[in-house]
Write a structure and sequence with these properties.
Layout: E1 4-10, E2 14-20, H1 26-34, H2 37-40, E3 46-50, H3 54-67, E4 72-76, H4 79-88, E5 93-97, H5 105-113, E6 124-128, H6 133-142, E7 146-149, H7 154-169
Parallel strand pairs: 3-4, 3-5, 5-6, 6-7
Antiparallel strand pairs: 1-2
Helix pairs in contact: 4-5
Amino acid sequence: MGGTMEISSEEGKGSTFEATIPFTTATTVSKAQATSPRHHDLRELRILLAEDNAFNVMVAQDELNDAIPGVVVDVAVDGREALSMVKEHTYDVVLMDVQMPEMNGYDATKAIRSLPGNMSHVPIIAMTANAMQADLDRCKEAGMNGYVPKPFKREELLLALQGALTTSRSGA
């Protein structure tokens, strides 16, 4: 368990046993996980955030910038702009709101999946307040690689990013 044990004894006075086991608190675990080797691959990602709500954009950008060293986050305000930006730039992952004006996230994902070459293989993670099984099935049917419920927690977002990137890099 990575700890230590010390024993001291004095005749006629007794013995003292001291055991130290390094456990972390729940708060420490979250901070450690964000920089653990499991999340090491998240450094210097280029992420497209497709989100029409300015407050949600601000929260997501703050969380990503705080959690991922060297991250670059581009923002698209609707599905059409997200599709255009995927055509113009190379992204490591797309965070896709499913309910946007002009073109929703489902249709944008389907359009990205029909692009030629590597553009169609970019991992796409749904960001949705709709977490019913039918909604999640619709995300998968559209070609999304995972989802993060809104409002999201940092660790949920990092785990979804890691999962989508691991799956795409392994070719699964």
